[in-house]
Specification:
The chain contains eight helices and ten strands. It has helices at residues 19-29, 53-63, 81-95, 122-141, 178-187, 205-225, 252-265, 285-295, and strands spanning 4-8, 33-36, 68-74, 99-103, 144-148, 153-158, 171-174, 190-193, 234-238, 269-273.
């Protein structure tokens, strides 16, 4: 399968002061998709502008025509399947069926306590995620859903007329642990990873490749256990969190080498961050645009 290049545009700009222009430029450059983070605030951007993901994607849907759009990723930290399902069906309709839902278990950052709750343990996050994804799947494919779970309840929740994309919009499930990988195998149309976080500070690119190879092997096992061919699942790498850092974005040749090595592992999509000055995502804008227009043609 050919490799696709996408971007993630952090929601840090006012729509009429540069926000809209970025999404439109992403379409002009030929990116496969443009995603945004679904957080209430995030890391070093916490004390600066940060807008909501779903309203931003709604605006992007009206400002573009062909570009796929999505979250990378949504989590249960401050979402409920019933309300999220209603918003996703609306967004899929407005975009004409161009939405992908990136979804993960969430972490212990600012989102974890913004609603006043205690930080969930890793087990509780996994338990909630294991209930959240199947219920959301039902909400997006069935006309009326009633279900009482340990964490989430739906009482005759109606989502007519359903998604434009059938049977529903695709899920891109972010996971590395066994329970999350099984959710990706059962419910995902794509699987998302950022690599092995333990290698970010002191690991090497070679160690990262081996760690990713191991993740794909475990994904393959999870697919086998549910009777699914792993080849039918897209595999997405969100760039910027491996030991390579931003070095692959320093030149077209560097990126072609990086992308080619990951394509050999089986990845079908690489997502790079739209440049943001004075941040971890500060890269040369001319090189960034050249990646979209030149690099992918060298990979085949």
């Amino acid at each position: 399968m050919s490799l696709r290049l996408s971007t993630v545009i952090l929601p840090v700009d006012r729509w009429h002061e540069g926000g809209r222009a970025k999404w439109q430029r992403a379409e002009e450059l030929g990116f496969h998709a443009a995603y945004t983070y679904d957080h209430l605030s995030w890391r070093t951007f916490r004390d600066g502008p940060w807008f909501g993901a779903l309203p931003t994607l709604t605006a992007a849907a009206t400002a573009t025509d062909r570009l796929r759009l999505g979250t990378l990723v949504t989590s249960p930290n401050f979402r409920h399947p019933v309300t999220l399902g209603k918003e996703l069906i609306s967004l899929d309709d407005i975009s004409g069926g161009r939405i992908t839902l990136g979804i993960g278990a969430g972490g212990n950052g600012f989102d974890a306590t913004a609603l006043g709750q205690e930080v969930w343990t890793p087990k509780e996050r996994a338990d909630r995620f294991g209930e959240f994804v199947p219920l959301l799947d039902r909400l997006l494919t069935e006309g009326a859903v009633s279900q009482k779970g340990d964490f989430y309840t739906a009482e005759e929740a109606r989502n007519l007329p359903g998604c434009v994309q059938r049977p529903r919009l695709p899920f891109a499930v972010a996971a590395t642990g066994p329970r999350g990988l099984k959710l990706a195998a059962r419910h995902g149309q794509a699987w998302v990873t950022t690599g092995d976080p333990k290698l970010y500070e002191t690991g090497t690119p070679e160690q990262s490749i081996e760690a990713l190879r191991g993740q794909i092997e475990r994904l393959n096992k999870a697919c086998t256990e549910v009777g699914r061919d792993v080849a039918g699942l897209d595999k997405t790498l969100l760039h910027g969190f491996t030991p390579d850092r931003n070095r692959p974005l320093e030149s077209v040749d560097a990126f072609v080498d990086f992308a080619g090595r990951h394509q050999e592992l089986g990845f079908t999509e690489i997502v790079i961050h739209w440049p943001i000055a004075d941040s971890d995502f500060a890269v040369d804008s001319k090189i960034f645009e050249a990646l979209a227009t030149e690099a992918m043609s060298q990979l085949g």
